Task: structure prediction
Amino acid sequence: NAGVTQTPKFQVLKTGQSMTLQCAQDMNHNSMYWYRQDPGMGLRLIYYSASEGTTDKGEVPNGYNVSRLNKREFSLRLESAAPSQTSVYFCASSQPTRRGEAFFGQGTRLTVV
Amino acid sequence: AQSVTQPDIHITVSEGASLELRCNYSYGATPYLFWYVQSPGQGLQLLLKYFSGDTLVQGIKGFEAEFKRSQSSFNLRKPSVHWSDAAEYFCAVGDSGNTPLVFGKGTRLSVIA
Result:
């Protein structure tokens, strides 16, 4: 049982390049989330999807787009990467019956130069 | 809106000493409360959670936390710290199964011999 799987684990981008971070969960959870983690800032919510077919903005959505491809997969896209998007990105999932308890992937460390 | 405050950015304790990490939350009703731990380069792992009932909850790795409604606190404790406990600890609050958790900024724990 893999839980939440993120790819890639590491990525270096040049300013202006685009890329998509992939996330898949095998726990049949309805809700999925993308957070970014920066030193001293904790985890900040970028986007979330409460169920298949729905997405909502979080605290820091600017510069990102998301797609809830199906119940398992939730991708995060950077259309034109900026150095301010250098961060560690975490995908998580949860199920309402578990009262919001989130299960996290191992993270993607992204550097934009 | 919910919020979580972790007053201590960095704490250093000696191996074998006791530990208390502070967490204060802001939420109108009874919150769902969580503590997560993040080892270097890893994702977040759930230590323990409080939903209702007994205000003292036990978690993994010998950790416990006490919910105090009057103080809006959910402090994490461990009677005897081990070197392997060195990590970053995050407190989080949720209000239902469908909304994302709100995280504090984290407390980094260092353990010295």
Notes: The interface with chain A takes residues 6, 9, 32, 34, 36, 42-46, 49, 51, 90, 92, 94-106 of chain B (CB under 8 Å). DSSP finds no helices and twelve strands in chain B.
